[in-house]
Every structure is written in structure tokens, then in C-alpha cells.
């Protein structure tokens, strides 16, 4: 059979880097050691977290692959890779973060359901592809449209993987039509990651990348695009990836009361140190990543070595040779910012990091206040313990 195929078991999974920390084998969910995230601004493909809900699809023949674009539009079409390659190609540096990043730490306060993640369900890549706004023009939807004449208001992305949450159906999600047709929103149909052809784990041959939004909306292995009146009714939009208050638990949850989560909030984590470290007294390097959703830049990253009483400001950077300035046109607005500070440690203590974004949003102090039953969006101050040990001669 031509085109994309979705296996129902795991015998044809792609090879993966042995140093990934595997949080679930089938479906394959893995993150790199946190130190890998701060060794480069652009995360290498093999060190980029992998978040799947089923077996990885296969493509036999790229020539027979196409994406069907249909729904509430005047001229539905099948778009081939050739059609996409003919459109202007954009390279957008964007951070993808799973809403479940740092879930394990939230579970320590009170148990949550979901795949356990450390601080590395996040990565920064250069995505190459066509802008969705250009692709939608091919089917008669102009730029900056919030509604089609036929009543379309949302753009649904449908994959072909078999997910148990969808009773064996494909993964899907949607974004508003106004975002999809806004060239400035930089929503891509990406066929490259870091200058290479997208690999199977990350959505070969084609995936959506929705910058500034939780990873769950960046649908991999794209099969069709549907212009619809209401937001996607799929499991991952309606019964997952919604933020609930701490008072809601599995016995009183009403999914309909909340909107699907889109933008992610301001986040940061220290990656140069583990949760618990033994260090020599003296200078210790504290580095990590900071990111915010919606294209908001990072104004500040504050570091404390006394559990949050006193703070110093870390330096921030993206590309070598360019000072990072939040909201500057030379900065990558959809990308994370790496930070670094050197602190003097004389006794055992807790090191804390918190970031502030361009809208002055700041991370919450404690995880308790943002606890939610699915364990999403743990953006509480990131804390690591350092124990001062004296080297034995
Ligand atoms: N088809 C499909 N797309 C998907 C998923 C999936 O399971 N199937 N997972 C989503 C989630 S929850 C995240 S966080 C990102 C992860 O992308 P990555 O594996 O390339 O890091 O893909 C999203 N797109
Ligand atoms: Mo995710």
C-alpha cells in the first residue's frame, strides 16, 4: 500500500541514541540527560525528547505521499511533497516543550497520572518547511482569515498513528484558523529538522510545528488537514492537555469546563546540576534553559543559593556572538534562551532558578499551588540540592 502506514505493534521502531532516558518503552517516550540540553543552543536531533502515543508510522514511497486538505473550504486539494517544496522555505528556530515536562516533580507532591518526565521534555530545533499560511492559500484560504465563507474557524491536523487513547484511531489536534493563516505566527508544515530530513521519530515525512504552543499541538506524520467550525473533538484536545485547578480530582472532573491548553507559560530549569549534587566548596556553574510561550521573550533569570531569599541575575544567550535582547528582531522569538551564572558555594544548600518573561509573568514558587491531576505545566521554581563534600586525598 502506498503512502503512510501505521503499524499496530512495535517491531519496526527506529534506532535511538543509547543515552536517552526511557520513560516508557511502548509507546516510546524518552528524554536526554539534562546536561545535553545546555551543551548547545540547537538541540541535536538524537538528543531531542521523543513523545509518542503509538508505534512510529512508516513511509514506503515519498512520491506517493500527499496531505489531503479538506473541510469547510471552497477548493479541497491533495498536496504532495513536490507542491510543498515549491513554496517558499522557511527555517524557524522554535522550542518544543511537552506539557508534561517536569511531571515527575509534581507527582512527588501528590500523585498525578501520565508519563513521568524529568526536566528534559523540551528541545530547541531549526524547523525547515512551508508556512501553513502559504499552504492554505493553495486551497483558497487567504492570509489573515479568521473564518471561511463556509464557516471554518479552526484547522485540524490529523495523523495516522494508532493511539489507544483514540481507541486505535490517529492522533489529532487543532489551532484557530486566525493563527494558521497568520504568516507571523510561523506555523510550519516542516520537512526538515536542523537542516536534515525529518526523521521517523519526529514526524517523517511531514509534521506541524506550532511555535510557542505546547508540543501536543505539533502533530507528527501529517495525513490530512481539516478546516472545521469548532475546535478538534479528539481525545488530546478534549480529555487531556487541559489545565485544572488543584481542587479537581478524578472523581469530580468535568473536562468540558476547561479549554485545551495552547501557549505554554514561562519556564526554566537548571541543567548543569542534577537534583542532588556533591560539590567542592567554591565556584559552581549554574546553567540551564528558559522559555515562554506565545513568542514572549525572557526578560530575566534569577538564581538564588539560599533557597530563594537572595537572588542574582544570570546572563542570557541564544546564538554565539549576539547578545540576547528579549523582543529584539535579531532574537529568535520562538526559541529558548540559555542562561548561566557562577555562584560561590561554601556550605550545603538549595540552588533555585526562576525566569521572568517579556510580559513580566514569573514562575510560581511552589508546585502545590499549580498541582493538577494530569501533572501538566509544572513551571514551579526549579530547585536543586548541593551538598558540599571535601575531597579525600
Ligand atoms: N501524530 C502524533 N503527533 C504528536 C504526538 C503523537 O503521539 N502523535 N505527540 C505530541 C506531543 S504530546 C508532543 S510533546 C510532541 C513531541 O514531539 P517530538 O517527539 O518530536 O519531540 O509531538 C506531538 N505530536
Ligand atoms: Mo506532549
TrEMBL record:
GO terms for cellular component: mitochondrion. Residues 1-31 are annotated as: Disordered. Pathway: Energy metabolism; sulfur metabolism; Sulfur metabolism. Its cofactor is Mo-molybdopterin. Coiled coil: none annotated. The keyword Metal-binding applies. GO terms for molecular function: heme binding; molybdenum ion binding; molybdopterin cofactor binding; sulfite oxidase activity. Residues 53-235 form the Oxidoreductase molybdopterin-binding domain. Pfam families: Mo-co_dimer, Oxidored_molyb. PANTHER family: SULFITE OXIDASE, MITOCHONDRIAL, SULFITE REDUCTASE. This is Sulfite oxidase. It comes from Rhodamnia argentea. The gene is LOC115741275.
Amino acid at each position: 500500500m502506498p503512502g503512510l502506514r501505521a503499524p499496530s505493534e512495535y517491531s519496526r521502531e527506529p534506532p535511538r541514541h543509547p543515552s536517552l532516558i526511557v520513560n516508557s518503552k511502548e509507546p516510546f517516550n524518552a528524554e536526554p540527560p539534562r546536561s545535553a540540553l545546555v551543551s548547545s543552543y540547537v538541540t541535536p536531533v538524537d538528543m531531542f525528547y521523543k513523545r509518542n502515543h503509538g508505534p512510529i508510522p512508516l513511509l514506503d514511497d515519498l512520491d506517493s505521499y500527499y496531505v489531503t486538505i479538506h473541510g469547510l473550504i471552497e477548493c479541497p486539494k491533495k498536496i504532495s511533497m513536490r507542491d510543498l517544496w515549491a513554496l517558499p522555505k522557511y527555517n524557524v528556530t522554535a522550542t518544543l516543550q511537552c506539557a508534561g515536562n517536569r511531571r515527575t516533580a509534581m507527582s512527588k507532591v501528590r500523585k498525578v497520572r501520565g508519563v513521568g518526565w524529568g526536566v528534559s521534555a523540551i528541545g530547541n530545533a531549526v524547523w525547515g518547511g512551508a508556512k501553513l499560511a502559504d499552504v492554505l492559500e493553495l486551497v483558497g484560504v487567504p492570509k489573515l482569515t479568521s473564518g471561511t465563507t463556509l464557516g471554518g474557524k479552526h484547522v485540524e491536523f490529523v495523523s495516522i498513528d494508532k493511539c489507544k487513547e483514540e481507541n486505535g484511531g490517529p492522533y489529532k489536534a487543532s489551532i484557530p484558523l486566525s493563527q494558521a493563516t497568520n504568516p507571523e505566527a510561523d506555523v510550519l508544515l516542516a520537512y526538515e529538522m536542523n537542516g536534515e530530513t525529518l526523521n521517523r521519530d519526529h514526524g517523517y515525512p511531514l509534521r506541524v510545528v506550532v511555535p510557542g504552543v505546547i508540543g501536543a499541538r505539533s502533530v507528527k506524520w501529517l495525513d490530512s488537514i481539516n478546516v472545521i467550525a469548532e475546535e478538534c473533538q479528539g481525545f488530546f484536545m478534549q480529555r487531556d492537555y487541559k489545565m485544572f485547578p488543584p481542587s479537581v480530582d478524578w472523581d469530580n472532573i468535568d473536562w468540558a469546563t476547561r479549554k485545551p491548553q495552547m501557549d505554554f507559560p514561562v519556564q526554566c530549569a537548571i541543567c548543569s546540576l542534577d537534583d542532588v549534587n556533591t560539590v567542592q566548596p567554591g565556584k559552581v556553574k549554574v546553567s540551564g534553559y528558559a522559555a515562554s510561550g506565545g513568542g514572549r521573550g525572557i526578560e530575566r533569570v534569577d538564581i538564588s543559593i539560599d533557597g530563594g531569599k537572595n537572588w542574582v541575575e544570570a546572563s542570557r544567550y541564544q546564538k554565539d556572538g549576539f547578545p540576547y535582547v528579549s523582543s529584539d528582531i535579531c532574537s529568535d522569538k520562538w526559541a529558548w534562551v540559555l542562561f548561566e551564572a557562577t555562584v560561590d558555594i561554601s556550605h550545603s544548600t538549595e540552588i533555585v532558578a526562576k525566569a521572568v518573561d517579556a510580559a513580566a509573568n514569573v514562575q510560581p514558587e511552589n508546585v502545590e499551588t499549580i498541582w493538577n491531576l494530569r501533572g501538566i505545566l509544572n513551571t514551579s521554581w526549579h530547585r536543586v540540592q548541593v551538598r558540599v563534600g571535601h575531597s579525600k586525598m
